[in-house]
Amino acid sequence: MNRLQCLIFFTALLFSATAADASRCANDGYDIVRNISEVEQGSFGRFGLSHATLAGAVLHGLKEVEVWFTTVAPGVGTPIHRHSSEEVFVILKGSGTLYIGSSANSDQDHPGTPQEYPVFANSTFHVAGGVVHQVRNTNEHEDLQCLVAISRPPMKMFMYKDWFTPHTAAKMVFPMFWDERCYEPEETKDEL
Ligand SMILES: *[C@@H]1O[C@H](CO)[C@@H](O)[C@H](O)[C@H]1NC(C)=O
Ligand SMILES: *[C@@H]1O[C@H](CO)[C@@H](O)[C@H](O)[C@H]1NC(C)=O
């Protein structure tokens, strides 16, 4: 390669890398109508998870609502957790179990033994803000796939070790695993 070819090659490389990053993170680098099969999915370091953010705060600048497309393998589930966002699930495939403990605003200082509800394809349920819950794929034979809508993104999640962990000892996760790469705190934007 001569120097000019070399320069063109590396400039092209630089631009293709920038374009790829932009489509992952930039607020305006996405198609208006998106094919779910082509939306980037990942496990984000979580065993048995495949997650895609269909529309959300960090990727698309939404302020009121965020929608996820989530698939979990048999035996896998969400952590025991709560958040102030309201949450709606629509089960698309498979089946599992919803566990509901007490709300962090109740008199009890920990979630307590949860109520259990079977969930199935074409079922829907919602979880109010502050209620400690978990959704698990308890079907040994099939993946559990759902659409999840949350209010007021980006979500701040509080994770419990078990149902007897005090509400005050729940561990905060923010940003969410899938937002880590693209999340920019408000403050750093203003520094420029
Ligand atoms: C959506 O993407 C999938 C996988 O790439 C493809 O097979 C399908 O044809 C696409 N659908 C449309 C309507 O483009
Ligand atoms: C889900 O329910 C709707 C409304 O009854 C029905 O049309 C649809 O076929 C159902 N889908 C599945 C997968 O059962």
TrEMBL record:
Its main location: endoplasmic reticulum. This is Auxin-binding protein T85. It comes from Sesamum alatum. One of its GO terms (biological process) is positive regulation of cell division. InterPro entries: Auxin-bd, RmlC-like_jellyroll, RmlC_Cupin_sf. Zn(2+) binds at H81, H83, E87, H133. CDD domains: cupin_ABP1. One of its GO terms (molecular function) is auxin binding. Gene3D superfamilies: Jelly Rolls (2.60.120.10). Disulfide bonds join C25-C182. One of its GO terms (cellular component) is endoplasmic reticulum lumen. Glycans are attached at N122. Keywords: Auxin signaling pathway, Disulfide bond, Endoplasmic reticulum, Glycoprotein, Metal-binding, Receptor, Signal, Zinc. Residues 1-22 form the signal peptide. It is found in: Endoplasmic reticulum lumen.
